[in-house]
Write a structure and sequence with these properties.
- By secondary structure, this protein is mainly β.
- It contains three helices and 39 strands.
- The strands form five sheets. It has a 29-stranded antiparallel β-sheet that branches. A four-stranded mixed β-sheet has the order 20-21-27-26, with no helix packed on it.
- A hairpin with a 6-residue loop joins strand 37 and strand 38.
- The N terminus is likely disordered.
């Protein structure tokens, strides 16, 4: 569960209800200070120009994923098709109590222990099934009414339902280490979770990989109401998104006992997990024009949001195979485990803006000022249980769904559930954010053709945390925070944008801004979040890590990153929305946050967000949109577009990281104090060719995207760095409208035409790259229809 993954799918908004979709690349004072690279502003229509009533439906087929007979399914619940669990996966009664029924707890009888175990769902692994293809349906409508006094009342509504399934039969998760000798270059396999359990000896060979299935349901609704007078406009919109994802996995685990910190075992592993997320948002706002010439504009917005995420009953069952028969062995494959994770977050965003049209230097100008207030509160909890035995282990057949049969449950058998939750719970926290901001900005012409936008924003940001670490929960000797400030900053964020009009269709822009990147709730916590499928653990940034000799590797003081941005852009505008521009940019980062592998956790696969040394980014961008009519008039409906960005990034390593890398330096290798930044691709290419003919209602296009090799996880010392491999995405879209007023539109699409694979690799000096993860999404074919009833 990634509690900070709150991305919003743009395609939930029908295009006929969108007013504007604006991409902002340059920070100004009116935007929040955590503007770290770009902002997408989506505005829905208030008043449809004409009555809208549209229905749509679509299908998508991927030959490598759909109608697969070895798809991994599960029984699930009766409402999974709506994107939420009906209670089937709820935490059983008594399970959230400090004392639960176990054979070693004298407060409970044998029958109570038996009943307690039976209150858990006995399904511990996926079952073989056949999946269906993807499909979606949608509906949108809107209209407006004009009253006798000229006032208008408008409304809109949109509903969407999307069902998708994915099946990967070639999944690989790996862990590799650097060899200790300076003369050994090839990386050492420490742990691989991949291959087909029925062909274990082929686990590392191509094509013998793990299986992972995913079924997703997205249910969304958007409703809006707007009222407009001569000088005011009021808007109320409500949005609800519900998403449920059911996953099943089957892997063979090979743990290499000769690697550092590894016990050495093989296991068959089975996973079941269900994630449900919901987002409920309301937006109430108004725009008012005041003054004789309506030279004043006052805007206000109030927007509360409730986000809920839940992982109910995440199940992992691994049969250790060292003894020649399936068995549960702590320290190797481990005992069957179950996890419940719950998150609830409340956001209240408010802003007030005033714009005044005036004269400066005897030319038209604008003065903007405003204030904002953002409140966030998050509650998060993880509960863990594992299966224990009281007596000699029964014979197991390797089927996870035969483990909790009645004769195996205590007292008839030996199995019972033990709580892994300390009291207080170290994986429970409450965090709040209060962010009060204000700004002033002015847009004016210094001299003819030279426009300036100068502004200053100020934010007072306070984040508080209530939580504790494992040491305190167990012994009372560790860290325990009670509504304590973990971030408290008062910052000024100046910005200056200069635009020189070289001609009617050419501009030269120069800009400077100061922004900030703050750690998320999850990053600024003590939480330890296990991904049962990969066996990898995320550790919150408040955890300090200390070497055995007392050396402090990480002090637990995760803090924000302050960024300075300088941009230079030349742009040429041509008829028909054609564009050509060249940009250069430079950014400096004060202690950026990166996800690093924890070097002292050699027996586990653990990661942590940390501030690293200061960094900088230097880059250039080329962007163009051009019709092909310059070749021939017959190609006037064809156009090409592209965006090419090249970047050089550097980070100054901390002394700890530098020394850890030097310890494993190889002969012929020279490790410097600097390296590239995590998450920053050295190049990004977007390109496309498209055709559009409004008269015939036909448009189609071929679009390509790729990012260069990117450092995704920072290693150092024993553990190598992890890089993502370029994924060459080539997609085709076609739309054709038919009938009276082109009311019916058929669309067809092909995704991942090149059948590329998503891969991440461990890399080392003069060493062959080794898998960190691998997925093959396959090629998808989709067809859909939109019908405008009126």
């Amino acid at each position: 569960l990634d509690p900070d993954r709150n991305s919003l799918q743009i395609d939930i908004f029908p295009t006929n209800l969108l007013e504007n979709l604006i991409v902002v690349k340059t920070a100004t004072a009116e935007y929040p200070a955590d503007f770290t690279g770009g902002l997408v502003n989506i505005e829905t229509k208030d008043f449809p120009e004409e009555k809208i009533f549209t229905i749509s439906a679509g299908l998508e087929f991927n030959p490598s994923m759909h109608f697969q007979n070895d798809y991994l399914g599960s029984e699930g619940s009766g409402t999974d098709w709506l994107g939420f669990d009906d209670g089937t996966r709820d935490l059983p009664p008594l399970a959230d109590q400090p004392d639960i029924p176990t054979p070693i707890n004298p407060d409970f009888t044998d029958q109570e222990v038996n009943d307690f175990v039976k209150s858990f769902n006995p399904e511990l692994g996926p079952v073989q099934d056949q999946n269906f293809m993807n499909y979606n349906v949608g509906l949108s409508l809107g209209n407006q009414k004009t009253f006798e006094n000229g006032h208008k009342l408008g409304f809109l509504f949109s509903g969407t339902y999307k069902y998708t399934t994915e099946f990967f039969d070639d999944v690989i998760y790996g862990e590799y280490q650097r060899p200790g000798s300076p003369n050994d270059f090839e990386l050492v396999r420490a742990y691989v979770q991949a291959g087909d359990p029925d062909a274990r000896e082929l686990v590392l060979e191509p094509g013998r990989s793990g299986k992972l299935s995913r079924e997703s349901v997205l249910l969304g609704g958007l409703a809006g109401l707007a009222y407009k007078t001569d000088r005011s406009k009021f808007k109320l919109s409500l949005m609800r998104l519900q998403n449920g994802v059911n996953q099943g996995g089957r892997f063979f685990i090979d743990d290499n006992g000769s690697a550092v910190g590894k016990s050495g075992y093989t296991a068959d592993s089975y996973n079941l997990d269900y994630n449900q997320r919901s987002l409920t948002n309301a937006l109430l706002g108004g725009d008012h024009f005041l003054g004789d010439q309506q030279e004043w504009q006052v805007s206000w917005k109030i927007s509360p949001t409730l986000s809920e995420q839940s992982d109910p009953d995440v199940r992992k069952t691994a049969f250790t195979l060292n003894s020649g028969r399936p068995a549960f062995e702590p320290g190797n494959g481990g005992n069957p485990s179950r996890i419940w994770r719950e998150l609830e977050e409340v956001n209240l965003a408010n802003r007030f803006d005033v714009t005044r049209n005036l004269q400066m230097f005897q030319r038209d100008a604008k003065l903007k000022l405003g204030a904002s207030y953002l409140f966030k509160e998050r509650d998060y909890e993880i509960l863990f249980f594992d299966l224990q035995r009281f007596g000699a282990a029964p014979e197991l057949d390797g089927d996870p769904n035969n483990v909790l049969i009645p004769q195996n449950i205590y007292p008839d058998g030996v199995y019972y559930y033990q709580s892994g939750n300390s009291d207080p719970n170290p994986n429970e926290y409450n965090s709040t954010v209060n962010n009060l901001g204000a700004y002033v900005s002015s847009e004016f012409e210094l001299v003819p053709k030279l426009k300036a936008i100068a502004g200053l924003r100020v934010e007072n940001y306070v984040q508080r945390h209530t939580g504790r670490d494992q040491n305190f929960a167990i012994s009372g000797q560790g860290n325990n925070l009670v509504d304590e400030k973990v971030l408290d900053s008062f910052d000024f964020f100046p910005s200056l944008n200069m635009i020189y009009g070289m001609s009617e269709n050419q501009n030269l822009r120069v800009s400077y801004s100061r922004t900030i990147a703050r750690p998320s709730f999850k990053e600024l916590s003590f939480a330890q979040i296990l991904d049962p499928i990969t066996n990898r653990t995320f550790n919150g940034g408040l955890f300090p890590f200390i070497e055995g000799d007392g050396t402090v590797v990480w002090d637990g003081n995760l803090t924000e990153t302050r960024i300075n941005n300088v941009d230079l852009r030349w742009e040429l505008f041509m008829p028909g929305a054609q564009l050509f521009s060249i940009s250069a940019f430079y950014k400096t980062f004060d202690r950026p946050i990166e996800l690093v592998r924890i070097p002292v956790a050699q027996t586990g696969l653990e990661f942590q967000p940390r501030n690293v040394g200061d960094g900088q980014v230097l880059g250039a961008e080329l962007e163009f949109r051009k019709s092909l009519d310059f070749i021939s008039e017959s190609l006037a409906n064809f156009s090409i577009n592209g965006n090419i960005t090249v970047v050089e990034s550097t980070i100054e390593m901390s002394i700890t990281e530098f020394e850890a890398r030097k310890e494993f330096e190889k002969n012929g290798e020279t490790i410097s104090q600097d390296r590239e930044m995590a998450g920053q691709a050295p190049y990004i290419i977007n390109a496309g060719i498209s055709y559009a003919n409004i008269e015939t209602g036909l448009d189609f296009g071929l679009f390509y995207n790729v990012k260069g090799p990117t450092l995704t996880i920072v290693g150092g010392g024993l553990t190598p760095d992890v890089y993502s491999e370029p994924f060459h995405s080539l997609n085709f879209n076609l739309n054709k409208s038919f009938g009276e007023n082109q009311r019916t539109t058929i669309n067809f699409g092909v995704t991942n035409i090149l059948d590329d694979v998503r891969e991440e690799f461990f890399t080392g000096f003069r060493a062959e790259d080794q898998y960190f993860s691998r997925f093959a999404p396959g090629t998808g074919f989709s067809i859909g229809v939109n019908y405008n009833i009126f």
